[in-house]
Design a protein that fits this description.
The chain is built from 5 helices and no strands. The chain is mostly helical and about 120 residues long.
Length: about 120
Amino acid sequence: MRSVREFIIDIVKKPPLSFPLIGLFHVALLLWTVWDDRKEPFDIVWLEVIWLVGYTFFWIAACDLRKWGAMGYFLLTLLNISVYMATRNHKIPQGYFSNMFLLDGLFSVFLLFSYKKLR
């Protein structure tokens, strides 16, 4: 089992440069969203935080060059886009889906191009 230090070194040095930068973006966005919603009651607004936790978890796994991390990110992106498409004509609150689903689609394309490098 790797230590936390070895894990961080691996997710920074093993993948292409864009992967850790996108991972840092996910972590920063997650922290900013938690900070922004800290005074809100625990309701549908916090679903966006749950989406971001999933995206961040799977992206960090993809930074460790794990295929299950990439597949999880793909599936979460597909689920998010499906929820958006199914609810866009209804009066569903904005927080039910992630606001950055278009960026997540773009990040999924990055994963798709480097999928063969993952183990």
